[in-house]
Amino acid sequence: MNAILQAQTAYGAQTGATRTPRAVEYDTFARITHRLKSAAENRQSPTALAGAIHDNRRLWTMLAVDVANDANPLPRGLRAQIISLAEFTRQHSSKVLRDGADVAPLIEINTAMMRGLSDRKPDA
Known about the structure:
Elements (H helix, E strand, L loop, with lengths): L2 H15 L3 H21 L4 H23 L7 H24 L4 H16 L5
């Protein structure tokens, strides 16, 4: 491994370690939402849309599992809302893939989550 690659690896690991869980969640939502938007705009690629929807479903499933845990520190009401959004996302994703329903509601929900993640105080 050359010196430049070693430096990039070292600084990359250091940079990643300083990111908060909230920042990682925001970036994940941003990346998947961008893929949903791109796939919706370019309807000629059903594979891209299916892949973006699959990743979005996985994200929401992970969120639902996380907030269903009694040890999750979020308020109970907010946790219930996230589970409801996850269920809506699951159902609407099926409609998009099966019936050609609009992707916009999925994008809007993700965008609202990103707003919430960016408005909250940083993790301590």
